[in-house]
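Hi,

Apologies if this is the wrong queue. I'm a grad student, and the batch job for Outer membrane protein beta-barrel domain-containing protein from uncultured Cytophagales bacterium produced an output file that my downstream script rejects. I'm not sure whether the problem is my script or the file. Here is the sequence I used:
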Amino acid sequence: MKATPVPGVRQYAHGLPAHPHAGPSPGPRPRPVRAAKRWACLAGLLWLPLLAGAQELPVTPRQRLPRGHERGVMVGYGAGQVNEFRYDVVFLMAHLAVEMGRRENRPEGSSRFTVYLEPQANLVMTKNNDFEFGINVGVQYMFRLSPKVHPYLLAGAGPHFITVKTERQANGYIFSDNVGAGVCIFTSPGTALSVEVRGRHLSNAGLEKPNSGINSHIVQVGYRVFLRDLRP
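Support response: The file is valid. Your script probably expects a header line. Output copied below for reference.
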């Protein structure tokens, strides 16, 4: 039998009255929050293939700086400011690197230079859930501070595409310039956790107006797998 609505009493969808002390039903979550949670889930899925390859290098008596290629994934947060609002970004990027030079010319465990490639898809936390897509190419210098702690410096640049609209910077194709510093903390001879900070500048080299640029301060964490040297 269908329940008869009672004036002044909030009804559930199936017709039963709500609890008299129940508060207002929660509304939908803000779109930026939902999008950030989807980004976090995607980042977790990208870590799975790295965990599968975590035993690439044998354990040695002394922890040394691994040689050859490396791969990794990083997530992070960047804060900036444009004229109309805060430019907050959730970063999701891959890190692929190849060592420069011939390793036989340097002692095992010494510093190393790598050339890296970082494809990325980033969420800009606006009410419209804007995005950044792009790729960075750069160089990284890593040195051995202790058996498990290896700091590094990096610098890179690359083409990007942004959808956000602001009076400060034209959207569309743009260039990203990055400098940063971080540290790898090795959990085994072939795997490491990374923590880093970066400064980033977005602008389009005067191809479109306005071109005042967008600056961001970024903090990222990541996981890296150091592979065997693939060269003969």
